[in-house]
């Protein structure tokens, strides 16, 4: 299949794929499985399972793998660019408007409204992830321990600690759990002949490791490169995101939130909910403000680096993932990590999201009403964004 054809299909989806990762996976199935017949339901279920196993943006990893199946590495890169480009364009426009009118009272009101929306969306994400990942006593304990640790001593090292704690406890107590049981019912285990053919691709794994270890060292030893130093923060965040796009929020907040300020950070998060395509384009908005001397370059660099680790890991295991998914130890580790991620997001909900958005009893009431509305009726997220932006705008004139 030509790269132009791959680009056309994914670019079209990039403009209409509202609703977050789960919705994106549904759009992909309708387009590439049901309509275009690129692959069977069983093969598509395998790609979805692969995205669930790895850190990174799940739906974008599925799209990357779909492009890889149709056009090799060139097809994978084309699919990523095409699907992500609409969201990047919209986030760049939003960042440019925000930079020009930042001192206006009406914009400050809109930002306050969007920060309340962030409270609503993250609360809903925590509730949904807790129901999915914390169904056993040990996973509840992991989530609670992770929350307490992050509230007591926040920071990147603490995040690594809670993820490691979740992995260890999952390895010890959750190996027999049926992780991805529903997905596994759609396909058979690989045959002995297939297992011989399937091998891990080492070059992307080596590059993944070199970047995660080498970027901090490079910027430490060559200060002249410090204008590009934001790349390491986004690469580290993309390397640690388990459990969905919302988890990029606490990871980036710890690394770049202080530099930007909470208003800019949470406004970008709320806007990432409103645009179609992957939530990871929050990095586009943040990168724009982190490199004021070259905002477009900063936005594109941040976007590339937050997606890159997830794609390198897909390339590493795409031919071997079925064997890996069948290992009980790995399934237990992943269940423990996902439970820890719930605690990670819960701590971020308190600080900085709720503490920076709720200053008055009326803010708490609006946030509570928004949560009930989102949980009970599931309105389009674009409508929620418009409603909270209008609320903030009206309140700014009072």
Automatic annotation (TrEMBL):
Entry keyword annotation includes Disulfide bond: no
| Superkingdom as given in the UniProt entry | Bacteria
Q: How does it sit in the membrane?
A: Multi-pass membrane protein
Q: Which residues cross the membrane?
A: 6-28, 76-99, 105-130, 137-154, 160-179, 200-222, 234-252, 264-290, 296-318, 330-351
Q: Which UniProt keywords apply?
A: Cell membrane, Membrane, Transmembrane, Transmembrane helix
- Localization of this protein: Cell membrane
The main location is membrane
Entries under InterPro entries matching the protein:
Chr_Tranpt_l_chain, Chromate_transpt
Give the family from UniProt.
Belongs to the chromate ion transporter (CHR) (TC 2.A.51) family.
Q: State what protein this is by name.
A: Chromate transport protein
What gene does the UniProt entry assign to this protein? Answer: srpC
